[in-house]
User: Fold DUF924-domain-containing protein from Hyphodiscus hymeniophilus.
Amino acid sequence: MRGYNVTSAFQKVIRSTLGIFRADASHQILGFQAMFRSTIQTPFSSFRSMSSTMPMDPDINRTMSYWFDGPEPQKKWFAGGPAVDAEIRDQFGGLVEKARAHELGSWTSEPVGTLALIILLDQFPRNIFRGTPSAFSSDPQALNVTTTAIAKGFDRSVSHTQQSFFYLPLMHGENLLSQVAGVALTEAALARCEPNDSELKEYWERSIKFAYSHRDSILKFGRFPSRNEAIGRESTPEEIAYLKENPSGF
Assistant:
């Protein structure tokens, strides 16, 4: 896949998946997850923590501090509302535009900067442009950045909470390959948890449910019905019924 720095093992999996898509059999996609998990350990676990001799860009620190610091950052992630949307727009709107204009490519030289860039491309637009097509327009950029980063092992060199944000661009992709990868990576993170670390296991178990819900929506509809109104797509009767039961549209 041009533009993605992935290992040969991962490329073989991608080629195998394309054959599955041609067969148009959803149950085979689910079976493919086991195959993907079996290949994920070698190509994605060889990287060790990298350190840079260069001082970190203050905008990287600012982005990471805003998103992860504080006693309950998850409230900002999942229950921020208009106040958080406005705060992110005021503090990071200009930086998001720089990220979208490919002006922050130097951030991808190390894990923390790469994650900060992913947040600017994948998370903050959902706050700044909520309810509009622009909320999703930099998703392809985020997916490209995160795929290359995962291939380098960057996701394994940050905290577990931060690690999960490397996988969200995969979950946000409206295609089964991204969904299968997101589920498999999240399941692999749970499998690495120490048996007695109940708090961490609970975190990844919640993340897996989140990943499953995204994947199942794509399996059922081939897209996320919750995006239809924002981007001007007409919902099918089945999607309308689904959204009544599942307002999140996963």
The longest helix spans residues 198-221.
